[in-house]
TrEMBL record:
Keywords: ATP-binding, Nucleotide-binding, Transport. This is ABC transporter ATP-binding protein. The keyword Transport applies. Residues 15-241 form the ABC transporter domain.
Length: 294
Protein backbone atom coordinates (compact mmCIF):
# COMPACT_ATOMS: atom_id res chain seq x y z
CA UNK A 1 0.00 0.00 0.00
CA UNK A 2 1.48 3.32 -1.07
CA UNK A 3 0.49 6.56 0.60
CA UNK A 4 -0.11 9.39 -1.83
CA UNK A 5 -0.27 13.16 -1.39
CA UNK A 6 -4.00 13.21 -2.09
CA UNK A 7 -5.86 14.50 0.95
CA UNK A 8 -9.11 12.60 1.59
CA UNK A 9 -10.20 13.85 5.02
CA UNK A 10 -9.61 17.17 6.78
CA UNK A 11 -10.75 17.59 10.40
CA UNK A 12 -10.19 21.10 11.71
CA UNK A 13 -10.79 22.13 15.34
CA UNK A 14 -13.82 19.85 15.68
CA UNK A 15 -15.66 19.83 18.99
CA UNK A 16 -18.88 18.10 20.02
CA UNK A 17 -20.86 18.80 23.17
CA UNK A 18 -24.19 17.55 24.49
CA UNK A 19 -26.64 19.07 26.95
CA UNK A 20 -27.26 16.78 29.91
CA UNK A 21 -29.50 17.34 32.99
CA UNK A 22 -27.62 18.50 36.05
CA UNK A 23 -26.97 15.72 38.55
CA UNK A 24 -29.43 15.52 41.40
CA UNK A 25 -31.95 17.76 39.70
CA UNK A 26 -35.55 16.88 38.96
CA UNK A 27 -36.47 15.77 35.45
CA UNK A 28 -38.65 18.88 35.37
CA UNK A 29 -35.62 21.14 35.76
CA UNK A 30 -34.48 23.05 32.72
CA UNK A 31 -30.96 23.51 34.04
CA UNK A 32 -28.37 21.54 32.07
CA UNK A 33 -24.65 20.86 32.01
CA UNK A 34 -22.46 20.57 28.94
CA UNK A 35 -20.75 17.26 28.24
CA UNK A 36 -17.80 17.65 25.89
CA UNK A 37 -17.48 14.46 23.85
CA UNK A 38 -14.78 15.94 21.58
CA UNK A 39 -12.49 18.94 22.08
CA UNK A 40 -10.62 20.75 19.34
CA UNK A 41 -9.74 17.74 17.14
CA UNK A 42 -7.56 18.40 14.09
CA UNK A 43 -5.84 16.07 11.61
CA UNK A 44 -5.44 15.33 7.90
CA UNK A 45 -5.73 11.88 6.26
CA UNK A 46 -4.38 10.89 2.84
CA UNK A 47 -4.98 8.16 0.27
CA UNK A 48 -3.26 4.88 1.10
CA UNK A 49 -3.33 5.43 4.88
CA UNK A 50 -4.85 2.97 7.34
CA UNK A 51 -5.39 5.02 10.49
CA UNK A 52 -6.30 3.61 13.87
CA UNK A 53 -8.44 5.74 16.19
CA UNK A 54 -7.49 4.43 19.62
CA UNK A 55 -8.79 5.13 23.10
CA UNK A 56 -10.67 3.75 26.07
CA UNK A 57 -14.44 3.29 25.97
CA UNK A 58 -16.20 6.64 26.09
CA UNK A 59 -13.24 8.64 24.82
CA UNK A 60 -15.12 9.98 21.78
CA UNK A 61 -13.83 7.66 19.04
CA UNK A 62 -17.19 6.61 17.61
CA UNK A 63 -18.53 10.16 17.87
CA UNK A 64 -15.63 11.38 15.74
CA UNK A 65 -16.28 8.73 13.10
CA UNK A 66 -19.97 9.56 13.06
CA UNK A 67 -19.20 13.24 12.46
CA UNK A 68 -16.74 12.46 9.63
CA UNK A 69 -19.33 10.15 8.05
CA UNK A 70 -21.92 12.93 8.19
CA UNK A 71 -24.25 11.14 10.61
CA UNK A 72 -23.77 13.82 13.29
CA UNK A 73 -22.98 17.52 13.19
CA UNK A 74 -20.03 18.97 15.05
CA UNK A 75 -20.79 21.69 17.60
CA UNK A 76 -17.78 23.61 16.35
CA UNK A 77 -15.14 23.09 13.68
CA UNK A 78 -15.04 21.83 10.13
CA UNK A 79 -14.86 18.48 8.33
CA UNK A 80 -14.05 18.13 4.63
CA UNK A 81 -14.00 14.82 2.73
CA UNK A 82 -13.04 13.99 -0.86
CA UNK A 83 -15.89 11.45 -1.15
CA UNK A 84 -18.80 10.17 0.93
CA UNK A 85 -17.28 7.93 3.62
CA UNK A 86 -18.63 4.40 4.08
CA UNK A 87 -19.14 3.73 7.78
CA UNK A 88 -19.09 0.03 8.56
CA UNK A 89 -22.28 0.22 10.53
CA UNK A 90 -25.08 -1.21 8.41
CA UNK A 91 -26.39 -3.01 11.51
CA UNK A 92 -29.21 -0.50 11.91
CA UNK A 93 -30.59 -1.46 8.50
CA UNK A 94 -30.44 -5.21 9.11
CA UNK A 95 -33.31 -7.22 10.58
CA UNK A 96 -32.62 -10.32 12.66
CA UNK A 97 -35.84 -12.10 11.61
CA UNK A 98 -34.95 -11.82 7.91
CA UNK A 99 -32.67 -14.24 6.06
CA UNK A 100 -29.04 -13.46 5.34
CA UNK A 101 -29.87 -13.03 1.65
CA UNK A 102 -32.69 -10.57 2.40
CA UNK A 103 -30.43 -8.64 4.77
CA UNK A 104 -27.73 -8.37 2.13
CA UNK A 105 -30.26 -6.84 -0.25
CA UNK A 106 -31.51 -4.51 2.49
CA UNK A 107 -28.02 -3.47 3.60
CA UNK A 108 -26.77 -2.73 0.08
CA UNK A 109 -29.87 -0.69 -0.72
CA UNK A 110 -29.37 1.25 2.53
CA UNK A 111 -25.85 2.10 1.34
CA UNK A 112 -27.31 3.78 -1.74
CA UNK A 113 -26.65 1.12 -4.38
CA UNK A 114 -29.11 0.67 -7.24
CA UNK A 115 -31.30 -2.47 -7.47
CA UNK A 116 -29.21 -3.60 -10.47
CA UNK A 117 -25.97 -3.22 -8.53
CA UNK A 118 -27.48 -5.02 -5.55
CA UNK A 119 -28.54 -7.99 -7.66
CA UNK A 120 -25.02 -8.45 -9.02
CA UNK A 121 -23.43 -8.29 -5.56
CA UNK A 122 -25.63 -10.62 -3.51
CA UNK A 123 -23.83 -13.87 -4.43
CA UNK A 124 -20.28 -12.41 -4.04
CA UNK A 125 -21.26 -11.14 -0.57
CA UNK A 126 -22.65 -14.55 0.41
CA UNK A 127 -19.46 -16.23 -0.83
CA UNK A 128 -17.09 -13.83 0.97
CA UNK A 129 -19.05 -14.09 4.20
CA UNK A 130 -18.98 -17.92 3.91
CA UNK A 131 -22.77 -18.14 4.32
CA UNK A 132 -23.49 -20.47 1.40
CA UNK A 133 -25.37 -22.97 3.57
CA UNK A 134 -26.94 -20.32 5.81
CA UNK A 135 -27.89 -17.58 3.36
CA UNK A 136 -31.56 -18.51 3.47
CA UNK A 137 -31.75 -18.88 7.23
CA UNK A 138 -32.88 -16.10 9.57
CA UNK A 139 -29.98 -13.94 10.76
CA UNK A 140 -31.05 -14.46 14.38
CA UNK A 141 -29.81 -18.07 14.04
CA UNK A 142 -26.27 -16.91 13.12
CA UNK A 143 -23.31 -17.00 15.48
CA UNK A 144 -21.59 -13.70 16.35
CA UNK A 145 -18.79 -14.57 13.91
CA UNK A 146 -21.24 -15.19 11.06
CA UNK A 147 -22.97 -11.88 11.77
CA UNK A 148 -19.62 -10.05 11.79
CA UNK A 149 -18.62 -11.54 8.44
CA UNK A 150 -22.00 -10.68 6.95
CA UNK A 151 -21.93 -7.04 8.09
CA UNK A 152 -18.33 -6.58 6.97
CA UNK A 153 -19.00 -8.18 3.59
CA UNK A 154 -22.00 -5.92 2.98
CA UNK A 155 -20.19 -2.73 3.97
CA UNK A 156 -17.15 -3.55 1.83
CA UNK A 157 -19.01 -5.00 -1.17
CA UNK A 158 -17.81 -2.12 -3.34
CA UNK A 159 -14.62 -0.15 -3.05
CA UNK A 160 -15.06 3.25 -1.46
CA UNK A 161 -12.54 6.05 -1.27
CA UNK A 162 -13.00 6.34 2.50
CA UNK A 163 -13.84 3.29 4.63
CA UNK A 164 -14.54 3.54 8.35
CA UNK A 165 -14.59 0.44 10.56
CA UNK A 166 -15.94 0.72 14.12
CA UNK A 167 -14.90 -2.20 16.36
CA UNK A 168 -16.12 -4.80 13.82
CA UNK A 169 -12.75 -6.52 13.58
CA UNK A 170 -12.63 -7.26 17.29
CA UNK A 171 -15.60 -9.68 17.08
CA UNK A 172 -14.83 -12.59 14.74
CA UNK A 173 -12.28 -15.33 14.71
CA UNK A 174 -8.69 -15.22 13.45
CA UNK A 175 -9.69 -16.39 9.98
CA UNK A 176 -12.18 -13.54 9.68
CA UNK A 177 -9.55 -11.03 10.84
CA UNK A 178 -7.13 -12.26 8.18
CA UNK A 179 -9.81 -12.04 5.46
CA UNK A 180 -10.79 -8.56 6.64
CA UNK A 181 -7.16 -7.43 6.51
CA UNK A 182 -6.81 -8.66 2.94
CA UNK A 183 -10.07 -6.95 2.01
CA UNK A 184 -8.84 -3.65 3.41
CA UNK A 185 -5.55 -3.97 1.56
CA UNK A 186 -7.48 -3.82 -1.69
CA UNK A 187 -8.97 -0.53 -0.56
CA UNK A 188 -5.55 0.87 0.25
CA UNK A 189 -3.99 -0.44 -2.95
CA UNK A 190 -6.74 1.36 -4.85
CA UNK A 191 -5.64 4.58 -3.09
CA UNK A 192 -8.37 4.48 -0.48
CA UNK A 193 -8.24 5.63 3.14
CA UNK A 194 -9.27 3.31 5.99
CA UNK A 195 -10.10 4.31 9.57
CA UNK A 196 -10.35 1.65 12.28
CA UNK A 197 -11.84 2.62 15.63
CA UNK A 198 -10.99 0.37 18.56
CA UNK A 199 -9.86 0.28 22.17
CA UNK A 200 -7.91 -2.89 21.32
CA UNK A 201 -4.22 -2.24 20.73
CA UNK A 202 -3.76 -5.66 19.07
CA UNK A 203 -6.45 -4.91 16.47
CA UNK A 204 -4.84 -1.56 15.66
CA UNK A 205 -1.36 -3.10 15.49
CA UNK A 206 -2.44 -5.73 12.96
CA UNK A 207 -4.00 -3.31 10.51
CA UNK A 208 -2.74 0.27 10.89
CA UNK A 209 0.37 2.22 9.97
CA UNK A 210 -0.70 5.37 11.87
CA UNK A 211 -2.55 5.84 15.14
CA UNK A 212 -4.49 8.77 16.60
CA UNK A 213 -4.97 8.36 20.36
CA UNK A 214 -8.03 10.11 21.76
CA UNK A 215 -8.33 10.45 25.53
CA UNK A 216 -11.39 12.06 27.15
CA UNK A 217 -12.36 13.78 23.94
CA UNK A 218 -9.01 15.19 22.86
CA UNK A 219 -6.13 13.97 20.69
CA UNK A 220 -3.07 13.34 22.84
CA UNK A 221 -0.91 11.48 20.28
CA UNK A 222 -0.75 11.10 16.49
CA UNK A 223 2.04 9.15 14.88
CA UNK A 224 3.36 5.78 13.79
CA UNK A 225 1.66 2.70 15.20
CA UNK A 226 4.79 1.53 16.99
CA UNK A 227 5.42 4.86 18.73
CA UNK A 228 1.83 5.55 19.84
CA UNK A 229 1.11 1.96 20.93
CA UNK A 230 4.22 1.96 23.11
CA UNK A 231 2.70 4.83 25.12
CA UNK A 232 -0.82 3.40 25.07
CA UNK A 233 0.29 -0.05 26.24
CA UNK A 234 2.26 1.52 29.10
CA UNK A 235 -0.82 3.50 30.11
CA UNK A 236 -3.09 0.41 30.04
CA UNK A 237 -0.60 -1.64 32.09
CA UNK A 238 -0.36 1.05 34.78
CA UNK A 239 -4.14 1.51 34.78
CA UNK A 240 -4.70 -2.25 35.16
CA UNK A 241 -2.20 -2.32 38.04
CA UNK A 242 -4.12 0.53 39.77
CA UNK A 243 -1.06 2.74 39.40
CA UNK A 244 -3.21 5.78 38.65
CA UNK A 245 -0.45 8.30 39.30
CA UNK A 246 1.84 6.50 36.86
CA UNK A 247 -0.96 6.20 34.29
CA UNK A 248 -1.71 9.91 34.57
CA UNK A 249 1.99 10.63 34.07
CA UNK A 250 1.85 8.78 30.72
CA UNK A 251 -1.18 10.86 29.67
CA UNK A 252 0.41 14.15 30.67
CA UNK A 253 3.65 13.24 28.91
CA UNK A 254 1.72 12.41 25.73
CA UNK A 255 -0.19 15.71 25.92
CA UNK A 256 3.02 17.68 26.41
CA UNK A 257 4.67 16.03 23.42
CA UNK A 258 1.67 16.32 21.08
CA UNK A 259 1.61 19.27 18.69
CA UNK A 260 -1.73 19.96 17.02
CA UNK A 261 -1.41 20.51 13.23
CA UNK A 262 -2.23 23.93 11.86
CA UNK A 263 -4.80 23.60 9.07
CA UNK A 264 -5.59 26.62 6.91
CA UNK A 265 -8.43 27.31 4.51
CA UNK A 266 -7.29 28.57 1.08
CA UNK A 267 -8.34 32.13 1.95
CA UNK A 268 -6.53 31.96 5.29
CA UNK A 269 -3.41 30.50 3.67
CA UNK A 270 -3.35 33.27 1.07
CA UNK A 271 -3.62 35.84 3.86
CA UNK A 272 -0.88 34.02 5.79
CA UNK A 273 1.42 34.12 2.75
CA UNK A 274 0.79 37.85 2.28
CA UNK A 275 1.52 38.55 5.94
CA UNK A 276 4.64 36.34 5.84
CA UNK A 277 5.95 38.15 2.77
CA UNK A 278 5.26 41.50 4.45
CA UNK A 279 7.18 40.34 7.53
CA UNK A 280 10.12 39.14 5.40
CA UNK A 281 10.18 42.42 3.44
CA UNK A 282 10.15 44.42 6.68
CA UNK A 283 12.93 42.22 8.09
CA UNK A 284 15.05 42.66 4.95
CA UNK A 285 14.47 46.43 5.07
CA UNK A 286 15.58 46.68 8.69
CA UNK A 287 18.58 44.44 8.06
CA UNK A 288 19.62 46.60 5.12
CA UNK A 289 19.27 49.78 7.19
CA UNK A 290 21.25 48.22 10.05
CA UNK A 291 24.11 47.32 7.66
CA UNK A 292 24.17 50.81 6.15
CA UNK A 293 24.23 52.43 9.58
CA UNK A 294 27.08 50.24 10.73
Amino acid sequence: MLQSDKVTVVVRKVSKSYDVPKKGKSNLSFKQDKFEALRDISFIAKSGECIGILGKNGSGKSTLLSIIAGNEEATNGMVRVSAQPTLLGVSAALQSHLTGRANIRLGLLAMGLSPKEVKSLIEPVIEWAELTDAADRAMETYSSGMKSRLKFAIATAVNREILMVDEALSTGDATFADKARERMKTFLNDAGTVFIVSHSASTIQKHCSRVIWIHEGQVIADGTTKRVLRKYNLWTKRTAAKNLEGADMVIQNAINRYSQPKIYLESEFAKFQIESERFRSEYRRKEGKHRRDS
